Amino acid sequence: MDGEIFEIAVFTTAAALAATVVMLPPGIALAWVLARHRFRGKAVVETLASLPLVMPPVATGLLLLWLVGRRGPVGHLLEPLGIEIVFTPAAVVLAMAIMGLPLLVRTARAGFEQVTRRYEQMAETLGARPWRVFTTVTLPLASRNILAGALLGFTRALGEFGATIVVAGSIPGRTRTLTVGIYTYTETGQDARAAALLVVSVALAFGAVLVANRLAHVD
Amino acid sequence: MVQWVTGVAVVLALAVAPAQRQQVLVSAAASLADVMATLARRYEMQTGVRVVVNTGASNTLARQITAGAAVDLFVSADEAQMDAVRAEVVSGTRVPLLSNQLVVAVAADRPRRMRSVRDLLDPSYRRIAIGDPAAVPAGVYTKAYLEKLGIWREVSKKVVPSASVRVALATVENGATEAAIVYRTDLATTRRAMMAFAVPLPDGPRIVYPAAVIATGHNRAGATRLLAWLQGDQAMKVFVNAGFIRGR
Fold first, then answer.
1. I want to staple B143 with a disulfide (CB 3.0 to 4.6 A). Which of A217, B49, B89, B133 is the partner?
2. Which domain range does residue A189 map to?
3. What is the pLDDT of residues B181-202, one digit of tens each?
4. What is the DSSP string of B34-88?
C-alpha cells in the first residue's frame, strides 16, 4: 500500500469519526424529541430528518454547496470571519455528518421509545431533575441503540461520495476520501490504485457493519 | 468534556482557516487529474509556489465556482462549462489550453483496424459504447461527428450510453462491447484496449480544454503566472506524453 493510499484511508476514517462526533449531539436531541414529544409540524421535522437518506446525494451536495458557498445564506455570514468551508476537510466532515444523521436519528429514536417510562418516573419521585433523569436513566438505557446508530452513521460517512465531491472536491492530501479517490483514479485510468482503495473500503465497511449488527441484535 | 469539545473546535477552526496566500488552487477536469498532479509538483519545485489541484467532472467544478468557491484557475474539459462560469472569468485570460481527439477503441486481445468510422455499421460490431450524449462531453462530440457523417441514426441502434468515457472504455476492456468511442488520452493509460481508428483532426469535432483565471480566487497573479507556464514548452511536453494535443 503506497503512502497516498494509506493517507487517504487514514483521512477518510478520521473524517468519518469526526462526522460521527459532530452528528451525535443534534442526532440524540432530535431522536429524543421525536420519540417523546408531540407537537405541530412533527411530521415535517420527521420527514426533513430522513431526507438525506432518500435524496440523491449529489442533490444534497448541491444544496450544501449553495448554503455554505461564499454567496450562500450561511457562507456569506462566515466570509467576514475568514472562514471558508468549500474545498476544506470541514466540508468533508459536514457532508458526511449530514448524510449519516438520518441513520443515527432513526436508530436512536427506536432506542428511546423502548425505554420504560416507569424507571424515569421513579427517578423523578426520588427527586432527580429532568437533566439528571435523562443522563443517568434514559441515556444509559438507550445507549446500545445510540451506539448502533452512531456506527451506522459512521459507515454511511465512510461511503459518502455524491455530496462530498460536490462540496469538498477531490484535492489530494486535503479532501480526497476513499470513494472520491476511487472515482478520480478510475477516471484517470489508475486502476491499480482504485483497486487498492476498493479493498481498503470493503475492509473498513465490513468491520463497521459487523460491529453495528452485533450491537443492534444482542439484548 | 469541555476540554474535549474545545479540542474538536480547535481542530475544526484549523481545518477551515483561510488557505495560505502563496498557493494557487486549480480546479481541473477529472481526465487531467494525473497529468496536473505531475505538473503541480514540478511547478512547485521550480517556483516554490504551492499548486493545489481539485478534480471532478467539469460541470461539478463549474457549479463550485458559481457558488463562490475560491478557485484561482479553472481547466474545463469542454467549452460549455467554461461558458457557464463566464461571469467569474477574469476577462482576457481564457485560452484554449489543450485539444483531444476521438478514437475508436477495441479490445487488445481482439485487435482490428478500421479504415473509416463507417466500419462501425458492420454487423460484427454489435454494441458500441460511447459517453452518454445527453450529458457526457465525449458523447456529445461523438454524436455530433456521427451525425455529420450521416450514420448516427444507424449507429445509435447499437449504442450503449455510458456514465463517462472511462466506463465506455472499461466495457471494451472486459468484452461487454465490441468498440468504444473515447478520447485518445484514455488509451494512453490502458494496455487492454487499442486504437482501431483515430478520427482525423480536420474532420473531427474541435475538442478543446479551455483554461481561464477565475475572479473569485485569492491569488490572481499566481494563477496568471501558472497559466502562462502551463502553455510553455516544458509543461506541453508532459501534456503531449499523456496523449493531449496543444490547444489551437
1. B133
2. 3-217
3. 999 998 888 889 999 999 999 9
4. HHHHHHHHHHHHHH--EEEEEEE-HHHHHHHHHTT---SEEE-SSHHHHHHTGGG
